[in-house]
């Protein structure tokens, strides 16, 4: 396997381990932030395929931080079961946050299609969501339901799931995640309306703190006709089975 191409980035780049698999150069704004990770493009490449062997300074710092955490927990980071844990955890964290360097435009690509007869509401429901809450860096997970009213253009259905995935793979709060997905769809497609509903359970509420494992949080973001027109909103909620 040939080594992945690296794209110029700042020294402080959290995702420098996971460079683009081709020599594609990111937009300048993205270069200053994070590296592109192939793990979100869903084309079958795993992180093992794209992660270079040579550990970088940033990766070493992450691993050192995990070693410190283990020591503070009273563990021995050198015992057999934990020896590779700092490496695994750094890799897992980078994987779970690999949505930073992508943009919605990049994710959608050319998959916007002119379509005169496209009905009223398009709903992609039960899209899996796995994210990390930015307060505790613990997972929250559940489902996203994304709907829009087309205006002579439709989007490739998988791209809806990819937009959800891209924003989920960042440190998030559920409300912002919901709004970001709605805004991205609105910007990419310019539909008549957008509605996003996300239902998640938060491990920070289930495993620790208040310890209420059954609690489910629902958030909603509405734009355009799906916000302003009661009939469209009711239609959407009925389609979702909540009307
Ligand atoms: N609004 C919102 N809150 C979240 C989300 N994820 C986690 N939180 C909350 O963030 C809050 C952080 O509150 P703090 O009091 O600063 O932290 P804490 O002491 O760990 O709070 P407890 O969880 O109540 O023990 C908690 O109430 C979490 O439930 C989210 O996606 N949206």
Keywords:
single chain, 243 residues, alpha+beta, GTP Cyclohydrolase I, Chain A, domain 1, GTP Cyclohydrolase I, domain 2, 2 domains, elongated, binds guanosine-5'-triphosphate, GTP binding
Largest sheet: 5 strands, mixed
Ligands bound, unique: guanosine-5'-triphosphate
Structural class: alpha+beta
* Number of helical elements: 10
Top-tier CATH class of the largest domain: Alpha Beta
What is the overall pLDDT average? 84
The helical percent reads: 25-40%
Tally of strands? 7
Q: What count of structural domains?
A: 2
CATH domain fold name of the largest domain: GTP Cyclohydrolase I, domain 2
Described by the principal axes of the CA atoms, the overall outline is: elongated
CATH superfamily of the largest domain: GTP cyclohydrolase I, C-terminal domain/NADPH-dependent 7-cyano-7-deazaguanine reductase, N-terminal domain
Strand order of the largest sheet: 5-2-3-6-7
Distance between the first and last residues' Cα: 53 Å
Name the beta content range: 15-25%
Low-confidence stretches: 1-12, 16-50
Order of helices and strands: HHHHHEEEEHEHEHEHH
Q: If you compute it from the alpha carbons, what radius of gyration comes out, rounded to the nearest whole angstrom?
A: 20 Å
CATH architecture of the largest domain: 2-Layer Sandwich
């Amino acid at each position: 396997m040939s080594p992945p191409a690296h794209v110029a980035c700042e020294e402080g780049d959290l995702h420098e381990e996971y460079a683009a698999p081709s020599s594609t150069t990111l937009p300048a704004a993205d270069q200053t932030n994070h590296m592109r990770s192939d793990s979100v493009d869903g084309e079958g490449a795993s992180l093992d395929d794209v992660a270079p062997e040579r550990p970088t300074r940033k990766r070493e710092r992450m691993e050192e931080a995990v070693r410190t955490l283990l020591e503070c927990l009273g563990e021995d980071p050198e015992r057999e079961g934990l020896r590779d844990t700092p490496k695994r955890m750094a890799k897992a964290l980078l994987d779970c946050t690999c949505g930073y360097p992508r943009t919605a435009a990049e994710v959608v690509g050319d998959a916007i299609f002119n379509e005169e007869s496209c009905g009223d509401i398009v709903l992609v429901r039960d899209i899996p969501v796995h994210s990390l809450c930015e307060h505790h860096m613990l997972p929250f997970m559940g489902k996203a339901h994304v709907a829009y009213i087309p205006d002579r253009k439709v989007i490739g259905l998988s791209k809806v799931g990819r937009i959800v995935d891209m924003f989920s793979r960042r440190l998030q709060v559920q409300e912002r995640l919901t709004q970001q997905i709605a805004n991205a769809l609105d910007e990419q497609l310019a539909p008549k309306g957008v509605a996003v509903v996300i239902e998640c359970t938060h491990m920070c509420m289930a495993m620790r703190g208040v310890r209420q494992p059954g609690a489910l949080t629902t958030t909603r973001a509405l734009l355009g006709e799906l916000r302003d027109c009661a009939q469209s909103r009711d239609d959407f909620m009925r389609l979702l089975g909540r009307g």
